[in-house]
Write a structure and sequence with these properties.
Elements (H helix, E strand, L loop, with lengths): L11 E4 L2 E4 L4 E8 L10 E7 L2 E2 L3 E3 L2 E5 L5 E7 L3 E2 L2 E11 L7 E7 L21 E7 L13 E6 L8 E2 L13 E7 L3 E8 L5 E7 L2 H5 L3 E9 L6 E14 L1 E10 L18 E4 L13 E3 L5 E7 L1 E7 L5 E5 L5 E5 L4 E11 L4
Parallel strand pairs: 20-27
Antiparallel strand pairs: 1-2, 3-19, 4-5, 4-8, 6-7, 7-19, 8-18, 9-18, 10-15, 10-19, 11-12, 11-18, 12-13, 13-14, 15-16, 16-17, 20-23, 21-22, 21-24, 24-26, 25-27
C-alpha cells in the first residue's frame, strides 16, 4: 500500500499490516466481576466435560469454581461476545485448595474460536487444542516427560499448544502450592504482555514480560476472554475469586473491491474482463470529484484489487481515471460507504474503458 510523500499526505500509521488514519477513535469495553461472581453470570459462557458428560464450572460463595471433585475434568469460562484486545489490562485473584491433592492448574486465555471453546484435561489444562489463542498458565503439576520445570510454573502459549515447559516460579518465592490467595495482573500495550503474580500473605512477587502479537495470534482485534482449568490423576478446587478486564482497540472497518477494464462499457463486470493493476482508489474527503494530495489513497495490486482500512465514519470513494479512459461503473462515479467497527465491505467495483478514437 503506497503512502506517498509524507509532507503531502495525511499522517498514517501501520497496524497489523493495515493502513488507518492517525486520529483513530477508540472502542473500550470492560468485564467487571471485581466484587465476585453472581449465581448466573450474564455475559459468561460456562463449559466443561468429564469424559463425555457435561460438567461446567460452578459458582460457590461468589467464586467461579473452575474444577472440583473429579479427575480428568476440563472446564472453561469465556465472555459470550468478542471484546477488544488490541491493548488491555486485567486483574484477577485465584486460589487453589488441594482437596485432596494438587492438580494441573488454570490458564487465562484469549481466543477467537467460540465462547464454548474447551481444550483437553490433564496437562493441557483445558487449553491445549484451542486454536487462534493465547494463554498464560498457572501450573501446579509437573509433567516429568514433557520438560515442565517444576510443579509451580507459568508461561505464555499460543495456538492451543499443550502448555508444557514454561518458567519456574520457585526462585521468586511465589508458590502456587501454598493454597493462598494469588493476585495476577496482566497488561498488554500492543507488543508486550507483562505478567505480575503476587502472593497475598507473603507479598512475594513474580514479574515477566513476553513479546507477542496477540491480535495476529488470535486472528483479530476482538476475541473471547476468560479462563480454562483441568484436573488429571488428582483433583482439587480451583477458584477464580474475582476478575476485571478492560480492553481497547481502534474503531475501524474495511472496504475492498477492484478496478476492471469494462470492455463493452455496460457498467458491470462480465466474464473475461480484466482487472487493472496500479490504479488509484481514494477517499474524496471534500467530495469535489478530484484527488488532492491530502486525501488518503491506495493503488490496486497485481490482481486489480484494493483494500482500505478506515476509522468508523462515512466516506466517498472514487477511482482516479487516467488520461485516455472514461469511467463506466458505478453510474454515480463514486461509492458512499459507512464504516462501522469491525465491518468489511467487499463488493465495490470501479469500471473504466479506453476512449475510442474518433
Amino acid at each position: 500500500m503506497r503512502k506517498g510523500n509524507a509532507a503531502q499526505l495525511p499522517m498514517v500509521q501501520a497496524l497489523e499490516g493495515r493502513t488507518l488514519l492517525s486520529t483513530t477513535p477508540i472502542v473500550s469495553q470492560t468485564v467487571d466481576y471485581s466484587g465476585g461472581f453472581p449465581a448466573k453470570p450474564a455475559n459468561l459462557k460456562l463449559n466443561g466435560l468429564v469424559g463425555t458428560t457435561a460438567s461446567p464450572p460452578t459458582i460457590v460463595g461468589g467464586h467461579l469454581r473452575m474444577t472440583e471433585g473429579k479427575t480428568y475434568q476440563a472446564r472453561s469460562a469465556f465472555t459470550t461476545t468478542a471484546i477488544p484486545i488490541s491493548q488491555f489490562s486485567t486483574t484477577f485473584q485465584f486460589q487453589e485448595i488441594f482437596n485432596p491433592a494438587s492438580t494441573d492448574g488454570i490458564t487465562f486465555t484469549i481466543q477467537n474460536s467460540s465462547p464454548s471453546a474447551l481444550g483437553a484435561p490433564g496437562g493441557a489444562i483445558g487449553y491445549g487444542g484451542i486454536v487462534k489463542s493465547v494463554a498464560i498458565k498457572f501450573d501446579t503439576f509437573k509433567n516429568y516427560n514433557f520438560n515442565d520445570p517444576s510443579a509451580n510454573s507459568t508461561g505464555l502459549y499460543t495456538g492451543g499448544a499443550t502448555p508444557y515447559g514454561g518458567i519456574d516460579l520457585t526462585p521468586s518465592g511465589v508458590n502456587l502450592h501454598d493454597q493462598r490467595l494469588m493476585t495476577a495482573k496482566l497488561s498488554y500495550n500492543g507488543t508486550t504482555l507483562t505478567e505480575t503474580l503476587t502472593e497475598a500473605v507473603t507479598g512475594k512477587t513474580f514479574t515477566h514480560a513476553y513479546t507477542v502479537n496477540i491480535p495476529a495470534a488470535v486472528g483479530g482485534v476482538f476475541a473471547y476472554v476468560g479462563f480454562t482449568a483441568a484436573t488429571g490423576d488428582h483433583f482439587c478446587d480451583q477458584d477464580i475469586v474475582n476478575w476485571k478486564f478492560t480492553g481497547t482497540t481502534a474503531a475501524q472497518g474495511s472496504v475492498s473491491g477492484s478496478v476492471f477494464n469494462d470492455a463493452n462499457a455496460n457498467g458491470k463486470r462480465d466474464t473475461g474482463e480484466k482487472s487493472l493493476a496500479g490504479w488509484m482508489v481514494y477517499v474524496d474527503a471534500n467530495n469535489d470529484g478530484q484527488f488532492e494530495p491530502n486525501e488518503t489513497y491506495v493503488l490496486t495490486d497485481a490482481l486489480g484489487n484494493f483494500k482500505l482500512t478506515l476509522n468508523a465514519g462515512t466516506y466517498t470513494l472514487r477511482v482516479q481515471v487516467r488520461s485516455g479512459y472514461y469511467q463506466t461503473a458505478p453510474h454515480t462515479l463514486s461509492f458512499a460507504v459507512t464504516i462501522n467497527p469491525g465491518s468489511a465491505i467487499t463488493s465495490d467495483l470501479f469500471g473504466v474503458k479506453t476512449i475510442s478514437p474518433v
